[in-house]
Write a sequence for this structure.
């Protein structure tokens, strides 16, 4: 399988200078998760690849690396964000027409083009569905170019399922397998209860001809990779999106160094084969 | 159902798929076919655990009753899976409720019958333990993973 390669997404001439965007729509996804739709103030087009991220600048507070979750063909910049700290709290408090600084897009992409002709397994946990959404939308828009497509999603509880309506719509298609599992539920939930790797065991795919894209908490990714490898999917056909403390986003500052790589510049999307040795290193 | 028919069903189930025909035919004498409607309870916590089940079709929820609240679903199990390991562990009582969440077809294996056959042929008992132990370990690993609450906030 092909290695992921950094992509020049047409970021501003100086990648350290934020470009002003305005919030044109804001919606609540979950209690702590929201989506911002942004429009550039200069009106210039904004292009990105599925899996890339931006540094979003909440003026007066700071920057945070946030994956892009919109449709690459849609022409809109959309971010689904979980409020987990000062910057994301500030972003959550912003209203329509407020300004946000944007640096990016940065990083490597999901291998959507490379996956053509193969079965595709998309495995997400929690907020990890947001960085995979652009890849899902691109694949479903060109569904005829792929073999079997399965979207496997794990959440904490039924009330924490992200993009619930979209998951239902994707499940309603005749050409896509969608399965959801939650960590815990009461008897009112008729779906599956357990961990995401279990969904891998239940999905139908040809392991030797499958390309898997995995995004979620690192522990969940590790267990999912183990299940994929048990099923016969090669390590270099499994792509994971790594998350580390990104600051400059262009490989200068070293905050997100991961072994011999920088997650911001050489990632965030890696083949598992590229990062396997380092994923098991403590405190890395 | 005739024992030879049950032997064929056991052969098609992943739990018994790699067993020799001789063992499978022997165990078919302990097997019974079942059909459970959606919502039907298959076992109740504290009842004698005198069987274990192989799911042929459908899903089963393992539930724990909580006074004054909806039961908590510990896990759901699906086609090709096994439930009911309490038959192997004293005091041989179900550790939770089990409920079919949709139409479920299953085969039960009678514990008294199995214990008798295992006593007569300890290598059969060893084979059964070798198959149950990884299932129990996998369930425990999954339970521990969920204890980590990996989707919880990092705050």
């Amino acid at each position: 399988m092909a290695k992921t390669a950094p992509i020049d997404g047409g970021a501003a001439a100086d990648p350290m200078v934020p470009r002003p965007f305005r919030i044109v729509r804001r919606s609540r996804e979950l209690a702590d998760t929201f989506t911002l739709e942004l429009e550039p103030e200069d009106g210039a087009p904004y292009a990105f690849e599925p899996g890339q991220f931006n540094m979003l600048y909440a003026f007066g507070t700071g920057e945070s690396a946030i994956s892009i979750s919109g449709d690459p063909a849609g022409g809109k910049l959309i971010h689904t964000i979980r409020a987990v700290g000062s910057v994301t709290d500030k972003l959550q408090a912003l209203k329509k027409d407020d300004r946000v600084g944007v640096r990016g897009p940065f990083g490597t992409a999901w291998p959507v083009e490379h996956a053509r002709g193969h079965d595709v397994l998309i495995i997400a946990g929690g907020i990890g569905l947001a960085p995979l959404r652009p890849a899902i939308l691109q694949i479903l828009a060109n569904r005829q170019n792929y073999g079997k497509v399965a979207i496997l999603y794990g959440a904490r509880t039924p009330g924490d399922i992200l993009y619930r309506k979209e998951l239902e719509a994707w499940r309603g298609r005749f050409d896509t397998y969608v399965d959801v599992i939650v960590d815990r539920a009461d008897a009112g939930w008729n779906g599956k209860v357990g961990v995401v790797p279990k969904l891998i065991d239940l999905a139908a795919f040809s392991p030797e001809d499958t390309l898997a894209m995995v995004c979620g908490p690192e522990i969940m990714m590790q267990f999912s990779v183990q299940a994929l490898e048990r099923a016969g999917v090669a390590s270099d056909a499994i792509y994971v999106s790594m998350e580390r403390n990104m600051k400059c986003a262009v490989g200068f500052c070293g905050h997100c160094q991961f072994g011999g790589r920088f997650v911001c510049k050489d990632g965030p999307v890696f083949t598992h084969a590229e990062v396997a040795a380092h994923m098991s290193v403590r405190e890395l | 159902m005739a024992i030879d028919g049950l032997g064929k069903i056991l052969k098609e189930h992943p739990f018994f798929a790699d067993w020799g025909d001789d063992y499978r035919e022997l165990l078919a004498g302990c097997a019974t076919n079942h059909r459970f409607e959606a919502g039907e309870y298959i076992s109740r916590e504290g009842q004698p655990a005198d069987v274990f089940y192989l799911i042929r079709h459908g899903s089963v929820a393992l539930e724990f009753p909580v006074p004054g609240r909806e039961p908590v679903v510990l896990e759901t199990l699906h086609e090709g899976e096994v439930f009911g390991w309490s038959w192997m562990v004293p005091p041989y009582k179900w550790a939770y409720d089990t409920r079919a969440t949709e139409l479920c077809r299953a085969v039960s294996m009678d514990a008294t019958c199995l214990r008798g056959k295992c006593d007569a042929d300890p290598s059969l008992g060893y084979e059964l333990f070798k198959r149950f132990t990884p299932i129990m370990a996998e369930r425990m690993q999954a339970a521990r993973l969920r204890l980590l609450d990996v989707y919880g906030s990092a705050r």
